[in-house]
Amino acid sequence: xxxxxxxxxxxxxxxxxxLLLLLVAVVGCGGxxxxxxxxxxPTLAAIGQPIDDSALAxxxxxxxxxxxxxxxxxxxxxxxxxxxxxxxxxxVVSPNDLPPEGRKTLSLIQKGGPxxxxxxxxxxxxxxxxxxxxxxxxxxxxxxxxxxxxxxxxRRIITGxxxxxxxxxxxxxxFVRVIP
Length: 180
Hints:
Blueprint: H1 7-28, H2 37-46, H3 53-56, E1 86-87, E2 90-93, H4 100-111, E3 122-124, E4 139-143, E5 156-160, E6 165-168, E7 176-178
Parallel strand pairs: 2-7
Antiparallel strand pairs: 1-2, 3-4, 4-5, 5-6, 6-7
């Protein structure tokens, strides 16, 4: 092709080749090479170009210095208040401490029923006085199924008008306070 053998075209081609090879050498070496001559020289020699080592010198690239970073400050997590050990003179338990049937009854109470027993939701009079004294009608009682029992069994959940929850597994002899 005419024009490609002119001195300016050859010089331009040679510079472009050198720049491309230099770029490949720097990127291929991770930017930290001090000279690209060993990697580039065979390639230039293979295409019949004289090698000028001074044109191949590469200075180390300026690398950003790592900055000291602080780990993110811990975020404040809300810790729920500790559940008391006793309340109203009774041991305190979580709903998870109740038998599965007790958790099922609690769920029914929260939904408002339907309840499996006609006596569920009746007034609990607290005649034994084992719960805090309140006016008549303050407490309601609900049956907690007892597997294998031919009747309602001895387990009950008692609720108060202010949201209190009590559980007995021995037909009102003893109670625990249930706090979610």
